[in-house]
Amino acid sequence: MMSFSESVTLLLLVVVSISATLNGYESIDYATAVNLTADYCYARSYEEVSSIVKECKYIVLVDFEVPAGKTLELDLQKNAVLLFEGTIKFAVAHWDGPFIHITGKNIQVIGGTNHLIHGQGELYWDGHGGSGGVTKPQRVFSVNVQGGTFKNINIKNCPMFCVSIIGNDLTFSGFNIDNNDGFKNGLGRNTDGMGFSHSNNIVIENSKIVNQDDCVNVICSSNAVIRNVHCWGSHGLTISSGLSTSDRNNDVQNITYEDCSIGGSLGGIHFKTHPAGGHGTVDQVTYRNIEIKDVTRHGIEIQQDYPNNDGHPSNNIKISNLNLINVTGTVKGKTTRGVRISCGSGSCTNWNWSGVKITGAHKKDDCNFHPNGYSC
């Protein structure tokens, strides 16, 4: 049997031998990690977490409840490995959140086979989301990390906003976000799936999101790929700009959505800029191989009149090189359109679309700008 030092040495060899794509360390999978957990520090209660995070690089959180109104703060050491086991849930309190906040550098966070992060949103939902009703904690899973991988994380019933990301050189793979209970009586609102801002070099992949707002939302970020992500009930595969009055906080560059699907949703592709914000540039955004099914408003909506939808767009955000390739699907309902484009004067340039076809619309496309390769 290995000694403690030998086991740690083996783990370090596994952890630090990674691909150059993520700062030179290699991610490990759960099966590998769990075989080494005899040398991990186990936290089986909220009260144990703070000291264990300070003392240990290799940590397992096991099956406990976080007290009402408290954040599970996980300020991980450099190169730390964190495993979730069992159910981590959060006692009810009407406060802002977040429930979990993870910081660190070159870290790995892995969900165990039967783990669950349970936000107990069903005890908060009242049909109002963030616009009224009871105060709901925002962000079940908040990340501010420089370099890392997050694998196979299961999240259920977010009161509001599920996963919030700030950081660089991060991969999120195998996320399963389940807010299906929020459809009962239309009570779940603003349960955004995954969103990132002020970030660079982000990958979100191989994930499933069931929710009642944006499925994935990109804000003020660069160099990201969202691939093989499948959404249900959401508001869209989204790009957002103009949220800030500061010009430098509105830029979005080099973002790709590919091999994704979205269905039973309010929107399919949703690209929105806020007229009240500062100036900015959105450049080199690509949607490739996107399947849209049974959307109830617009299959594809690029709008510079958000949120008023009043046909009076602003040109504070310049949108260039917007590429749609093989985007197909269906919409249904009496108010649906396949495509709506509402651009501000002179703010949209060099859009190239091919293989774009949305069927089932009851209204004609509504476009004040015409992409190359698409007639609307």
UniProtKB/TrEMBL annotation:
Enzyme kind, highest EC tier: hydrolase
* The reaction(s) this protein catalyses: (1,4-alpha-D-galacturonosyl)n+m + H2O = (1,4-alpha-D-galacturonosyl)n + (1,4-alpha-D-galacturonosyl)m
In the Enzyme Commission scheme, what number(s) does this protein have? 3.2.1.15
**Which subcellular locations apply to this protein?**
Secreted
Its GO CC terms are: extracellular region
Q: Name one Pfam family in it.
A: Glyco_hydro_28
The Gene Ontology biological process terms listed for this entry are: cell wall organization; pectin catabolic process
What start and end residues bound the annotated signal peptide?
1-20
Quote the SMART domains the UniProt record gives: PbH1
InterPro entries recorded for this chain? Glyco_hydro_28 (IPR000743), Glycosyl_hydrlase_28 (IPR050434), PbH1 (IPR006626), Pectin_lyas_fold (IPR012334), Pectin_lyase_fold/virulence (IPR011050)
Entry annotated with the keyword Hydrolase: yes
| GO terms of molecular function | polygalacturonase activity
Q: Which UniProt keywords apply?
A: Cell wall biogenesis/degradation, Disulfide bond, Glycoprotein, Glycosidase, Hydrolase, Repeat, Secreted, Signal
- Homology family: Belongs to the glycosyl hydrolase 28 family.
Tell me the protein's name.
endo-polygalacturonase
Species assigned in the record: Chrysomela tremula (Leaf beetle)
